[in-house]
Amino acid sequence: MTRPLIVIPMGDPAGIGPEIVLGALADDRLHQAARLLVVGDADVLERALHYPNAPRLSLRLVRNPDEGDYQAGLINAIDLKAMDAGALIPGRIDARCGRAAYQYIQKAVTLCLADEADVVATPPINKESLKAAGIPYIGHTEIFAALTGTPDPLTLFEVRGMRVFFLSRHVSLRQACDLVKKDRIADYARRAWRVLRQLGVTGGTMAIAGLNPHCGENGLFGDEEVKEIIPAVRALQAEGLKVAGPIGADSVFAQALEGRYNSVLSLYHDQGHIATKTVDFHRTVSLTCGMPILRTSVDHGTAFDIAGKGLASPISMAEAIRVAVKYAPYYRKEEIA
Question: How far apart are CA 141 and CA 97, in angstroms?
Answer without folding.
Answer: 18
